[in-house]
Specification:
hydrolase, HAD-like_hydrolase_sf, HAD family hydrolase, 6 strands, alpha/beta
Amino acid sequence: MERAAVFDVDGTLVDTNHLHVVTWWEAFRQAGHQVPMHAVHRAIGLGSTDLIAHVLGENRDEDQDSELSAAHKALYGQYFDRLPALADAGALLRRLHGDGRRVVLATSASGAELSALRRALDADEAITATASADDVEEGKPAPEPVQLALELAGVPAERAVFVGDTVWDMQAGRRAGVRCVGVLSGGIPRADLEEAGAQAVYADPAALLAALADSPLA
């Protein structure tokens, strides 16, 4: 039976979390909201509307959400031609593909942003499919992105592992019934990832690749 390796992208395979923090912070600042960067950082990995709600609260002026999201998209878009893949991220995907895993991306990115992330990874030949923000009703921590990734891979939850860098990733994977692996490259502490459901935690994709034989992906 086939096996699947499902990956978040931002902060997990491509070193973009802090770019998101800065560009969201600037979008909030331009709209008159003074928010600390650490609060933005903890919300990275959520879809735009959920991120705004997490940072500003449910009592915010929701009419401003689309303006904030558009500002962030424009600011972040300035980096599309130089997004940096994390060390050995592409090599990890190619190794898993070569070992017979169906590799699927489950990401809140879509459109031009997702295209830029895939260019940074330079591993399209190893990627079976992508579950993007455009394909689901609810983003992480809802299980829908991971469930869709499993459908695209044609693999049941018990034959899959989900790799991510945020508590939202771990919660989504756990709710979808898959084993979860965390990486520290997004800046979230090991203890938080483990509490959210990570069965194993590695420094980054390079460390996961080096320890692959003894990992949940073995």
